[in-house]
Every structure is written in structure tokens, then in C-alpha cells.
Amino acid sequence: MRSNDFQFPRVGVIGGGQLARMMLPAARRLGIRLVVLDPTENAPAAAGADLFLQGDLYDEKALRRLSELVDFLTFEIEHTSTEVLAVLESEGTVIRPSATVLRSIQDKLTQKQLLSHAGLPVPRFATVPEPERLDPVAQGFAYPCVWKTRFGGYDGRGVRMLRNASDCEELRAGAGAGAGAGAATSATASATAAAMLEEAVDIEAEFAVLVARDLTGEVLSYPPLRMRFHDEANVLDVVELPSELDPSELNELCRVAEEAVRVLDGVGLFAVELFLTSGGGVLINEIAPRPHNSGHLTIEACYTDQFEQHLRAVCGLPLGAVAVKTPAVMCNLLGHETAVGAPYLSGAQDALRIPGVNLHWYGKAEVRPGRKMGHITAVAPELDDARERCRAAEALVKVYGSVQEDTQ
Ligand SMILES: Nc1ncnc2c1ncn2[C@@H]1O[C@H](COP(=O)(O)OP(=O)(O)O)[C@@H](O)[C@H]1O
Ligand SMILES: [Mg+2]
Fold first, then answer.
1. What percentage of the chain reaches a pLDDT higher than 90?
2. pLDDT of residue 174
3. Residue with the nearest Cα to atom 1 of ligand 1?
4. Could you tell me the distance, in angstroms and rounded to a whole number, from the CA of residue 403 to the centre of ligand 2?
5. Banded pLDDT at 185 (limits 50, 70, 90)
6. Residue 234 has what pLDDT?
7. Does the C-beta of 198 come closer than 6 Å to ligand 1?
8. Which pLDDT tens digit goes with each residue over 31-82?
9. Residue spans of beta strands (DSSP E) within 55-194
10. Quick one: what percent of the chain has pLDDT higher than 70?
11. Is 401 in contact with 334 (CB distance < 8 Å)?
12. Are 394 and 377 in contact (CB under 8 A)?
């Protein structure tokens, strides 16, 4: 095959959630065939995949079978076995990003160590050696500070703001689900989980910079995406593009994010979450080695969306242009606080009447309170109007469940 040719490769995706589902249209456009592995029979990407395998993401047999069917292997979720991936790599499977990259990212502590050893700016952090004796002050932290699980956290689960000694005591006691800012509610977030501490950063604004890195090591970053978080739950509220920041600050965010991806030495699309501090500094919060919730609006807003960009990098194709075609604002559609059972969508007709409003539904079979069920991206020639359209649509659309407990 000449280097200029393209043989319509098969790509295996570990995980069949909404990120894999949104890779499907990009794959189809490019003639790439996607084979998807997920434990759930009716996972969001199952029906549309060229081939769907049902299996556990940590199961060696399932991962091996997936690897045998494809030319390249990638993942849409970090929760898989890097030990198995390393074995498969040693046997010749091409995994992008690599098992080594995934291993350093899976653990928030080793991720921060790697970045800080490379001289990149991160919040001050330390490991928690004895969870039962958690004592931030003895480790040189002042209140407030942040306690995080090292493994498996997402959407703010596993992150807790410790405002004072009694918050710390409450965490040690293993109590406090649902209490206070950033309350950790997942099973992984008990005080006995492997954890780390961070200084509480005085955050002016949060951003994600999507950085693609190709086989030759060339990096290309999208313009920074402004992420606005829900005050209490640490969960993403809306994402905006373009960001209303000075060009020098935008450049600094991109420079730091690109450097972080170079340090990781990964191939694929990475989402670098960054804090702009009230003092004007830039700190890296964390890196996701895959398309990211913050980048969904690139489907409407950019020449090349994040899903196509990821597949291009994984398959060794040239990276696509990242310029912005239109201002856009995205919000997640979360399961209503009492929603359980089969989901149903209320208010979608009225929302879709608003010009520039795009609805993305993930096709999950079951809704739970706060579960990401879909998203809305509103576009308009001006960012303010896109914001307004997104807000109006979000107010109309609700995701309820068939086993509704007490909606009015
Ligand atoms: N050191 C910190 N100081 C202040 N806020 C933080 C800090 N670390 C995390 N947060 C807040 O918690 C959110 C979730 O933390 P993050 O580490 O990104 O966890 P997750 O893996 O759940 O996304 C961040 O987006 C930010 O709003
Ligand atoms: Mg995060």
C-alpha cells in the first residue's frame, strides 16, 4: 500500500457509551468500520456499530477478541485493564493512545506527578498515605482543600471540597453522602479509597483545550472551550465557544495544553482541563485521553469535530482543521432528580422549534437521577444569542422516567 492510500481500517472501541456513539457518524463518513465492546447489550453505540461485542471492559478474553477483529484499538472510557492492553500491545496490537499513556492518566496522582516533573503548572498536591488518618493540615495544606479519589472518579464524584476540620472528620467517618459542596456520592469515594489532596484553587474560570496529536508528534489544539460548572455538584453545566478571553490568555491555555500532551507522548485526541486562576495564572486540572463532554459542540461549531479528529489520529490520517464555524453553547440533558426506569423526553418539540437548537439523544435504556441522557447544542451568529437559545431549550426539555416517583 502506498503511504497516500487509505484502506478503510477497522477500529475497535473499548466502551460503547455516548462517546463511541458519536464516533459512529464520523467513522461512517470516512469509511472506517467500528467494532464496539461494552458490557451492556443495549449500550448507546451498540445498534449503530458495524459490529458489537458484549463483554466486560476488564476481561482479557473480551479485549483480546476485540483486538483480533481490528486494525487499531482505542477507548472511549478510561476504565479498562492497562495490564491486558500492555500484553496485547506486546503481541502487536496497535493501541492509540497507548497502554502506557492510559496507565499514567488512570491514576490522578501519577498523572499530576508526570506533569509537574515536566515543569507544567498544576495545583499543589500530595498523596494520602493513610486514609483513616487523613489530616490535610499535618501535610501542609490549609482549609479549604480538595480531596480526590485517585482512580475511577468522573463528573465530580470522587471530588470533595474540605472546608474545615469537621468536613475532614466527616469524610474520615465515611459519612456525608450528599452533604455540602462537591459531596462525593459514588461508592468509590469512601475515605478508604486511594486518594490525594490538592490545594483549593481560586478559580476564575474553567476551560478544556482539545489537543489532537498525530503519529508524527504534531499537535493541533482547538480554541479553548469555556466550561461552566454547577456550583454545588461540580458537574458540568454549560460549555461555550468561542471564549471571551484575551488572545494572550487563550494562547497560554493552548500552549500549556499542547505541552501536556507532548509530555504524555500520546497519539489521539486529548481533553486538557485547565483552571484560569483569579491571579491570571493557568493550572492543569486533569487530562482525558479521549473525546470529552466539553467537546460535543465541535460537531456543530468546528470544521472537524472531536470524534472525527480522534479517529483521524488513531488511524494515522492527517488531522482536520479546527477553526470555528459558528459560536455555540452546549448543555447536558440529565435525568430528572426523581427519574428511574425507561426514559421519556418532555418538551423536545418546543425546544426543536428554536432556530439553531440541535438535540443529541444517547439512546440509553434507563434513566437515573443526574445521568447524562443527551445534550443540546445551540448555535447562532453571536455567542449571546447561542447562550439564550441554549438556556431557552434547556428550560423546556426534561428527562423523566417511566417509574416516576413524584413529579407534579
Ligand atoms: N484543586 C481544586 N481546586 C478547586 N476546585 C477543584 C479542584 N480540583 C477540582 N475542582 C473542581 O471539581 C471539578 C471536578 O474535579 P476533577 O478533578 O476534574 O474530577 P472529575 O474527574 O470528576 O472531572 C473541577 O472541574 C473543579 O470545578
Ligand atoms: Mg474533570
1. 86
2. 74
3. 200
4. 31
5. very low
6. 67
7. yes
8. 999 999 999 999 999 999 999 999 999 999 999 999 999 999 999 999 999 9
9. 72-75, 125-127, 145-149, 159-162
10. 94
11. no
12. no
Q: Count the neighbouring beta carbons within 10 Å of the beta carbon of residue 142.
A: 9
Q: How far is the CA of 349 from the centre of ligand 2 (A)?
A: 32
Return the CATH architecture of domain 124-199.
2-Layer Sandwich (3.30)
Our answer on whether the CB atom of 229 is closer than 6 Å to any ligand 1 atom is yes
Its pTM stands at: 0.94
Whole-number Å distance, alpha carbon 148 to ligand 1 midpoint, is 8
> CATH 3.40.50.20 region(s) of the chain?
10-95
Supply φ then ψ for residue 257, to 5 degrees: -65, -45
Q: What is the pLDDT of residues 261-280, one digit of tens each?
A: 999 999 999 999 999 999 99
How far apart CA 154 and CA 366 sit, in angstroms, is 19
Q: Give helix 18-30 / helix 306-314 axis angle, nearest 10°.
A: 70
Ligand nearest to the CA of 227: 1
pLDDT of residue 406: 55
**Ligand 1, residues 285, 287, 294: which to mutate, most atoms within 8 A of Cβ?**
285
The pairs formed by 348-351 with CB atoms below 8 angstroms and a separation of 24 or more are 348/396, 348/397, 350/396, 351/376, 351/392, 351/393, 351/396, 351/397
- Of 244, 239, 226, the closest CA to residue 378 belongs to 239
Q: Is 189 in the pocket of ligand 1 (CB under 6 A)?
A: no
User: Which atom, in ligand 1's list, is nearest to the CA of 123?
Assistant: 1
- Average pLDDT, integer, range 95-112: 97
Q: For ligand 1, say whether the CB of 76 is within 6 Å of any of its atoms.
A: no
- pLDDT number for residue 130: 83
CATH architecture of 10-95: 3-Layer(aba) Sandwich (3.40)
Closest Cα partner for 286 from 112, 140, 66, 29? Answer: 112
Q: What are the tens digits of pLDDT across the range 375-397?
A: 999 999 999 999 999 999 999 99
Place of cell 515543569: 119
> In the prediction, which pLDDT does 2 show?
64
- Residue having the nearest C-alpha atom to atom 16 of ligand 1: 156
What residue owns the CA closest to ligand 1's atom 20? Answer: 154
In the chain, list all ranges with CATH 3.30.1490.20: 124-199
DSSP assignment, residue 113? H
Task: Give the dihedral of Cα atoms 389, 393, 396, 402; nearest 10 deg.
Answer: -170
